[in-house]
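[Discussion] Sanity-checking designs against the backbone

I'm trying to build intuition for which residues belong where. Below is a structure token string of 229 positions. I'd appreciate it if someone posts a full sequence so I can compare it with mine line by line.
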């Protein structure tokens, strides 16, 4: 059956009406969307960084801030006696240190103390073996005594760092004295192996561990001397 001109005209009119209704609906939706964003909104790409891979799981501190904190640590470490050790040990703590000199000092001291505790544990384990000569055992006994003194001095320093509000000048003087003494104790342990005829392999092993403590402590002292007033 052929469609009459009247029917065709009706279909065409109905199609036009549908298109008009759809257009009105789209305009209304667009208006509702735009009303949620102020005209003076400064919305930028940073609004979406929390969903990008580089920031996934860390929506509170953008990745560019993390890099800025690492740059701060790198710049600070470049002036120390052992910059590579400094940056390698401190950079994982960039979010904790931020760009805060006091936090830099505290984290540096904490890592030096951690290294000293590890050194003490290693030397103690070696002392518990039964294949040491009398001289080696004596040197190790002296060494662990030095390292334990170093641990005590680092603990005292960290404690004083938390009480700078009480007689600040006195506390700072004590901190510098204790950290300096800690370095001396580590060096004394290392020197003991040079003065006695101890197995070269054992000497190298202990010296490497203890000097690592001394170097981290030296970097911490640098930060304290230049940031704590």
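Best answer:
Here's mine. Compare freely.
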């Amino acid at each position: 059956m052929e469609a009459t001109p009247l029917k065709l005209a009706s279909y065409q009119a109905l199609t036009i009406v549908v298109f008009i209704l759809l257009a009105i609906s789209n305009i209304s939706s667009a208006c509702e969307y735009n009303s949620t964003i102020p005209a003076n909104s400064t919305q930028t790409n940073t609004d979406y960084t929390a969903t990008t891979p580089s920031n996934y799981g860390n929506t509170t501190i953008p990745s560019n801030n993390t890099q800025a904190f690492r740059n701060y640590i790198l710049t600070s470490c470049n002036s120390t006696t052992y910059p590579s050790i400094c940056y390698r040990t401190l950079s994982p703590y960039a979010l904790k240190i931020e760009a805060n000199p006091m936090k830099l000092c505290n984290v540096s001291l904490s890592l030096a103390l951690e290294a000293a505790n590890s050194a003490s544990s290693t030397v103690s384990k070696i002392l518990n073996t039964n294949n040491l000569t009398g001289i080696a055992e004596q040197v190790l006994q002296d060494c662990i005594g030095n390292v334990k003194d170093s641990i005590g001095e680092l603990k005292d320093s960290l404690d004083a760092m938390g009480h700078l509000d009480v007689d600040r000048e006195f506390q700072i003087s004590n901190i510098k004295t204790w950290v300096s003494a800690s370095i001396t104790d580590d060096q004394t342990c290392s020197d003991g192996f040079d003065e006695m005829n101890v197995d070269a392999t054992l000497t190298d092993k202990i010296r490497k561990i203890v000097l690592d403590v001394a170097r981290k402590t030296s970097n911490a002292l640098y930060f304290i001397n230049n940031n704590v007033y």
